[in-house]
Design goal:
By secondary structure, this protein is an alpha+beta fold. The chain contains four helices and three strands, in the order αααβββα. Helix content is 42%, strand content 24%. Strands 1-2-3 form a three-stranded antiparallel sheet. Strand 1 (72-80) and strand 2 (86-95) form a beta hairpin. It is flat and about 45 Å long. The chain starts with 15 loop residues before the first helix and ends with a helix.
Length: 124
């Protein structure tokens, strides 16, 4: 499967062709056939399995490309949402072997406050 990433200056990690690859993947088909046609995909077990499939189909190839890059950097954005939850949005920027710049979403972490020490601890 081709790495589901495109050069970008903003984050967007789910593309139509990537979702098509996910749905046609053997892991998804195994889960789907195991639970049958009448499932609503809302049980915790199904949600956990779908997250594992997403990680293997989407996240792992992106992480492999990031590891192979000789130039990479983190973008961190701390914000407070409407429910007054502090969040740390983590993106990575990196160059591929041809010198194309990529920016990928990595994680969204809940943090207790927006202090510098807390942000550093959230990244490490």
């Amino acid at each position: 499967m081709k790495l589901p990433t495109t050069p970008t200056t903003h984050s967007c990690w789910i593309w139509p062709n990537c979702l098509a690859g996910l749905i046609s993947s053997q892991s998804f088909m195994d889960v789907h056939s195991e639970v049958g046609q009448s499932t609503n995909y809302r049980s915790q077990r199904i949600v956990d399995e779908m997250l594992e499939i997403l990680a293997s189909v989407i996240e792992n190839p992106i992480l492999s490309q990031i590891r192979a890059s000789q130039a990479k950097g983190l973008e961190l954005d701390e914000c407070t949402d409407l429910f007054v939850l502090e969040q740390l949005d983590i993106h990575v920027r990196y160059l591929d072997q041809e010198g194309t710049l990529y920016c990928q979403f990595l994680d969204l972490i809940l943090i207790p406050d927006g202090k510098a020490d807390t942000i550093v601890a959230g990244v490490v």
